[in-house]
UniProtKB/TrEMBL annotation:
Domain Helicase ATP-binding residues, every copy: 358-513
Annotated segments matching region Disordered: 261-287, 560-623
Keyword Metal-binding: no
Coiled coil: none
Subcellular location: Cytoplasm
Protein's name in the database: RNA helicase
Pfam families xrefs: DEAD, DSHCT, Helicase_C, MTR4-like_stalk, MTR4_beta-barrel, Ski2_N
Biased composition, class Basic and acidic residues, residue ranges: 261-278
Ranges annotated as biased composition (Low complexity): 571-580
InterPro entries: Beta-barrel_MTR4, DEAD/DEAH_box_helicase_dom, Helicase_ATP-bd, Helicase_C-like, MTR4-like_stalk, P-loop_NTPase, RNA-DNA_Helicase, SKI2-like
Residues of the Helicase C-terminal domain: 666-831
Organism (species): Hibiscus sabdariffa (roselle)
Sequence ranges of Gly residues compositional bias: 607-620
Lineage: superkingdom: Eukaryota
Amino acid sequence: MKPIQAANGFSFRVGFSGYSGHLRVEPLYTEERDNPIKSLPDFVLPPAFPSETPESIKEHIKEKYLLPRLDEDAFSPEKAGKQWDFDWFARANIPLEPSMPRSIMVPVWELPFRRCKEGSTDGKWEPNSMQVDVSDIIVGGETRGSFPRTSASNDIVRGSINNRPFHPGGLEEQSLERILPDGASNGEWVHEVLNGGPAQTIPPGFKQGLNLGDLTAHPYSWNVYKDQTALNNTAVGNLSELSVQFDDLFKKAWEEDVAELDKDEGHSTESDSVKSETEANQADVLNTLDTGPSALDEILSVEAEKLDKNTDGSGQQQKEAWVVSGGSEWIADQFYELVPDMAIEFAFELDKFQKEAIYYLEKGESVFVAAHTSAGKTVVAEYAFALASKHCTRAVYTAPIKTISNQKYRDFCGKFDVGLLTGDVSLRPEASCLIMTTEILRSMLYRGADIIRDIEWVIFDEVHYVNDVERGVVWEEVIIMLPRHINIILLSATVPNTIEFADWIGRTKQKKIRVTGTTKRPVPLEHCLFYSGELYKICEREIFLPQGLKAAKDAYKKKNSKAASGGTGSSTGSSAAQDGTKGQKRETFNRGKQNKHSGPQNFGNSTGTGWGNQSNGGGQNSWSSRRTTWLTLIDKLSKKSLLPVVIFGFSKNQCDKSADSISGTDLTSSSEKSEIRVFCDKAFSRLKGSDRNLPQVVRVQGLLCRGIGVHHAGLLPIVKEVVEMLFCRGVIKVLFSTETFAMGVNAPARTVVFDTLRKFDGKEFRPVLPGEYTQMAGRAGRRGLDKIGTVIVMCRDEIPEEKDLKLVITGTPMKLESQFRLTYIMILHLLRVEELKVEDMLKRSFAEFHAQKKLPEQQQLLMRKLAQPKKTIDGSQQHLCVYCSFQGEPAIEDYYEMHAEAKEHGEQISKAVMQSPVAQQFLTPGRVVVVKSQSAQDHLLGVVLKSSSANNKQYIVLLLKPDVPTMTQTPSDRSNLQNKKGADFHQGYVLLPKSKRGLEEDYRLSAGPRKGSGIINITLPHRGAAAGVNFEVREAENTEFLSICNNKIKLDIPGLLEYGSNTAFSNTVQQLLKLKSNGNKYPPALDPVKDLKLKDVDLVETYYKWTHLLQKMSENKCHECIKLEEHIVLAREIKKHKEEVNALEFELSNEALQQMPEFQGRIDVLKRIGCIDEDLVVQIKGRVACEMNSGEELICTECLFENQLDDLEPEEAVAIMSAFVFQQKNASEPSLTSKLSQAKQRLYDTAIKLGNLQAELKIPITPEEYAQENLKFGLVEVVYEWAKGTPFADICQLTDVPEGLIVRTIVRLDETCREFKTAAAIMGNSSLYKKMDSASNAIKRDIVFAASLYITGV
């Protein structure tokens, strides 16, 4: 062959060699050059016959004898193609340098207040030494990789249970102690940090060191400037004027901080010591300086610029914002200048939010993108893939649904180096761009997969799926466990709390999150109601149109009025509802094994009102009317060019029946029919003959040829993919689907129709939420094809109310809420690593976000509370008497404890006594009582004037008021008392001298006892004054009485209540005052046991406790203190302060976490069953439980360790294992063999036993519900027959479970078999390992494991 000219003059030719005709590259002679020295080639081989020169001879000797080369005999051309083991290092004889030590000894610095000087020489502190790994002291080394490994993993993608997970990002910044210990705030350690500690004379690892004598510290001083530019502008001579000693500066700073704390609390502090003249002068210098929040903050700041940025104009420290939103409008205008060299070029102009997100990705920042469906969020994910390829790193795309993962794999396959990882598929895991489910990524993080080291981006799609009750916790776990070097991209629909969620991620990962997005839809939507064959527009561009709704209601009224005038006897809507209800009952009664549906169906809502009363019954009349409605709707949409359409229903069975009801409709042309047939033939050609003739496959093909499709979870996976792909091609005109189509398939349509606005969520029927409506309605409008998308709501029996429509159409979507919950597998994974704690995971969950966010403020409040007693309470303690001394025996605290307890018991007894029938007998007129004060002052002494009656449950009492009378009122002012029957003496009055009394008044005073009529002529409440004391007559309930006294006084009831006699009031008040004259505040009360005959056992016990406390209080020395009440108030303040401090300390502790009690209970469960020991070390049983991801970990582990599968054949074992993964609640009862029945009962008993154990240890579960929720035996017979080789068409006849759910269960069952295999290897059970291998091979065949069309293509 002719020579080929290579770069830099290196010539070679290509020839054939060997017997097989392999190509070989042969170098040729170098070409002649004018100046060979200046233009030397890169590589020159010696010619065949070179001319001999001294230089060439030297070169030849050098190459031949001085340089290492291959053995010519061993590597001769005759032996080409053979391989030998060649020891390059032995031939090269390269001197090896000693490797770095794996660990070294380093001194351990301790805080001054924690140092122990007892064992040191001369009382000087010497640091201890400890052995550390070299990798730990490298800057950033602790966060770049995972925790120390015990062994290397063979699987770099999936990881191993022997690996330790990577260090979660943000953990190292938040793992410090929350509360500073005593002595940490005195400034001694700051002094040592800035100026150096004591001289160290003992080297690390040594017991003794050199005696260097007394070492003198180097002199130092601190310079403080007014501003940042003072260093450059101040002359050298002026620097000495601003020079102060550090101790004085720190003292000044500390006093400023304390003063600021006291100012916040509303207290004023005085200096405890008098400053010297020098200190005062230095303080004056400091006062002239602008030191920001305090001089201490000035000293401790490392970078002065950072201090300026973190302080606002008032000098207060600003909180660091972890989420950044807005303020980036300039990016879109200057995008191409900011990002001149894009990692990937797009064929269309990017939107504003896409440019912002790409700019932040180029800067290496994390991004949260919130936008409507089809707005173009995937562009951000594509650019992250391109950046990973450009940077030679990896990017991971996670999706909540397997279908999305498969679709994204097909979309990205032609653009990037893409791999796919799901539960049953592993394609090209070594690729730089990996698409996987979120559960796979969580498993990789827990198992410390080595591939994590290379990941630069993790993309979370459909983040609003975090609201999912079952799987939402996975998102939180993954976000918390991601290492620091990984950046996060979150793609979500529009949610109201985007900033809040991004703030949680930023604080958790300690990195800023950029929030961008758009609320603008790429294709605007119009919303219509469809009633009686007409469309009524009710909303356009997010603006509600009431006139459209009014027109629909007018049409509804007009139609019903015609029906009523026709003499039908009932409206069409009501008859349809009745037919629907009957049809629903017949449908439920006749439900057999051929009825392929799952769960309660949305057939009848006959009792609802508003939008809920839409009949979806299964009766013949109802389905006939529904068929007419569908035909009318499709015809109207076709005429208006509004096809293709997606019709969303909320029942699999309803979708199938709706599609079958329009069997006569044909919407495709001949060319489209041909395309559909060719596509279906190619897609189903991978199935074997019997599977191609499955009833579902044949039925769906017939529908597809007419342009009608069905999509729900009951379809076979390959059938669903055919429907999705044909819909994306535009040949399917009408698609009946459940809401999973809106979540899992990126296939927009021209129109979206809602069959109903009510759904069954697994527990109850409820209206569709605004977020769910927005997600499904977002499929209307194809970007680039349609100017507007149409959303239609079907109305059959009545028109929904305006408020309901506004709520669902224009309402606020559901907020992102935490679904975090503790699982046993999470606990076991975290317990494997000492550096990770379950408490850290709980603290960083979204549920604890707000509580953790307030911790800094609570820490400051706690510091204030701890500093407060020394200045406010302690200062008052110096003046206390010897009886209530705080310095010695805490007598007043003990006395106050008894006082508070006695008060509580007394109130309890008083409440019981007042409600007892015996007490009512004592509450007669004249009985002295003590009534609770309404003004929180002293309780009021009074007397009962009138008892309660059957008609009036209230008593009339006269009470002595503690305030002093201020005004007088003459009797002439009350001359209208009898005429008006009850004047209001709100100003009070006193008894006048006899010379100034009126004739009538004098007559009344001289009169003798009178028999009253029982009429109350005074107005209640009646206030007055007598004997220099204010009194009040008012009504009171028995619950207001504090005690019933053992005294009774004489009363003039008519004079008090009928005539309002001053004399009667004066006599009554004087008698009450006499009861207080003996020094007691109140007269003694009736004995609850002796007098009131209290017989309740608990109350009697409380009574004796109360009397015992009163006796102890009387014996206490504080009882004699003349300032006892004042001291009790002070003790109450001290106790309140302690309670507040304890409450704050509790809030700052791990015990305050919401799920902490459940965590303790789950730890106890794991200990009881042997997964961990008393020291929380994971045992072999716990390691086995860590492998159980597809089923409930405790039941699976107990099943293995109880050897429940040993006596079963592989087919029987895999059939019983189907109970772990089958999810449908309602299924027909399987027909099992005796051996399978025994195994089923044995497994169920194990679940009940575990449920009882958890309930015993306070886990909030019910054993029966726990067993039924985690074990569903509906497909045991089906899986058993499938493992034995029965065709798929035959096993479908054994159950009423839809074919799609059968396939899904068996596919997940294969993953369970792999997990059991790994567990058997850990346990050392070789027979179980082989059995699981055989079981996995038995179920992996035919249509169940047919490859996805998205992966293999058609």
